[in-house]
Amino acid sequence: AGTVPRRRPPRSDMGRGLTLLLLPLALLAAPAQTESGTAAAAEEVKIEVLHLPEVCSPKSKKGDLLNAHYDGFLASNGSKFYCSRTQNEGHPKWFVLGVGQVIKGLDIAMMNMCPGEKRKVIIPPSLAYGQQGYTQVKIPPNATLIFEIELYAVNKGPRSVEAFNQIDKDSDKKLSELEISQYLKEEFARDGKKRHPSVHDEILADIFKKNDHDGDGFISAKEYNVYQHDEL
């Protein structure tokens, strides 16, 4: 939790394939490691726009799936502690914005950002790794961080209203086993890979185990945890 995102390499069908199908139904984002209290409220992320494309649309919002490269530096001495271009064969990172898959400061820094935009952001400790730091990537306690970000894509996120409505065929604001089963079959067909029939049943069972919290046989909008504030 609170680490830099570790997403799969971008693909031409990103946002439509099986991987993203399973994200909205089987994955819950872990909370970022941030400090709470008055210090966090008083401090803010400083944003400098380095490049803004002529066409700035769509702008990123909470729940969107973003694809970006970024480098992280310690403000104290300028040393680089992270570079996405050296991770995962240099592929840009995929992550959902505003749900704690990255530190709080990055969730804030990448709001209202458009594809092709570049930013330099300064994140205070209270919105990064706080008093604990993060020893795995050599971030000391109470460290102010600098990130240089280049955003490549803004897609509808896996728990967006649009994704929920796509599965909810009868528009009753809850997802039945039949609806999710049909959606799985459609995604399997679109993906084109051969799978044993048992895979479908295993995934369907796992989806309900992790999301049907009240055990009524349906996944409600609340259980689905739609990230946007839009009304269903």
From TrEMBL:
Reactions catalysed, as given in the entry: [protein]-peptidylproline (omega=180) = [protein]-peptidylproline (omega=0)
InterPro entries per record: EF-hand-dom_pair, EF_Hand_1_Ca_BS, EF_hand_dom, PPIase_dom_sf, PPIase_FKBP, PPIase_FKBP_dom
Pfam families: EF-hand_5, FKBP_C
Top-rank lineage group of the source organism: Eukaryota
Gene3D superfamilies: 3.10.50.40, EF-hand
Domain EF-hand: 155-190, 199-232
Keyword entries, A-Z: Calcium, Endoplasmic reticulum, Glycoprotein, Isomerase, Metal-binding, Repeat, Rotamase, Signal
Enzyme Commission number(s) of this protein: 5.2.1.8
Signal peptide: 1-34
PROSITE patterns: EF_HAND_1 (PS00018), EF_HAND_2 (PS50222), FKBP_PPIASE (PS50059)
Keyword Manganese: no
Protein name: peptidylprolyl isomerase
Organism name: Nyctibius grandis
Lineage: Eukaryota, Metazoa, Chordata, Craniata, Vertebrata
